[in-house]
Amino acid sequence: MSFRPTLPLHKKSSTAWLARQSRDPFVKARLSSPSSYRSRAAYKLIELNDKWGRFLSRSSVRSVVDLGAAPGGWSQVVAEKFGWTLDAAENADDYGLLEEVKVQKRGSWSTEPMNKTTGRGKIVALDLLPMVPIPGVQTLQMDFLAPGSARVVRDALKNSHNPEGTADIVLSDMAANFSGSKIRDSQMSLDICHAVLDFAKGALTVRTVDERGKASCGGILLLKHFAHPLLQEFRKEHLEPNFHLVHYIKPESSRADSAEGYWLCRGWLGRT
User: Fold this and answer.
1) How far is the C-alpha of 235 from the C-alpha of 186, rounded, in Å?
2) Rounded to whole angstroms, how far apart are CA atoms 264 and 245?
3) Which pLDDT tens digit goes with each residue over 53-62?
4) 28 has catalytic annotation
5) What whole-number distance in Å separates Cα of residue 166 and Cα of residue 168?
6) Contact predicate 85/118, CB 8 Å
7) Counting beta carbons within 10 angstroms of the beta carbon of residue 88, is it exposed (0 to 12), middle (13 to 18) or buried (19 or more)?
8) Catalytic pick from 182, 224, 236, 250?
């Protein structure tokens, strides 16, 4: 999947962007938060979790995969919900550093930070870009579409409670760089949705019903997309037949002028 580089900002648009950032309450919250979230997007996941059943907070949820995770804002939120913490002093000297500099300072993806508190379950984050380690998160610098990536993720999730290495939740906040063409941008969003669903098919825990009629929750997919008729067709043809419930959500923390939205898909049926 190819991605076109972001177009350079003109002076006027750059000034407008800076002005918008200075007024944005979520940007301000991120800069002042003791959690030091790496991206504004962290507040979208917090809001989605809090308003839609606290799906990350349930004790039964013990395995999460975060696709396209860098710089790590969503993985940080998941780690917090799982009970993984890191002393604030550990990151104090990193404030204001570029992500690449932090990686050089902290070390490789497999480096384990000190002063961490152990939480529950397993979290696996994938991205082509390097990312500073997060307590409780196993980071894999790889293409989730590459042959063998699904097996690597399953192996990373396996433990005595999850011998098959399935994921209770798959997260995707991925988006291609905008080209300026609505048709092209919509197609890129659709391509990403197809790719994420293809991965989720082999990763999610299947919803089951026992002989007493009691159903298990089944895997959850949280998928970002941009509104367009092509994407609505994708929902009807590929999501609704394969999940018990599919919700469309436009979080308050998503910018009002953006076509961005999320599908919260509950109860993977394992039919395809």
Assistant:
1) 14
2) 8
3) 999 999 999 9
4) no
5) 7
6) no
7) exposed
8) 224
Is residue 49 within 8 A of residue 55, CB to CB? The reply is: yes
pLDDT 10s digits, 188-243: 999 999 999 999 999 999 988 877 777 788 999 999 999 999 999 999 999 999 99
CA nearest neighbour of 126 among 46, 203, 48, 72: 72
What span, in angstroms and rounded, lies between the C-alpha atoms of 201 and 221? 10
- Report how far apart, in Å, the C-alpha atoms of 12 and of each of 8, 17, 107, 127, 215 are: 12, 9, 39, 33, 55
Give which of 42, 132, 40 is closest to 91, Cα–Cα.
132
Residues 103 and 82: their CA atoms lie apart, in Å, by 24
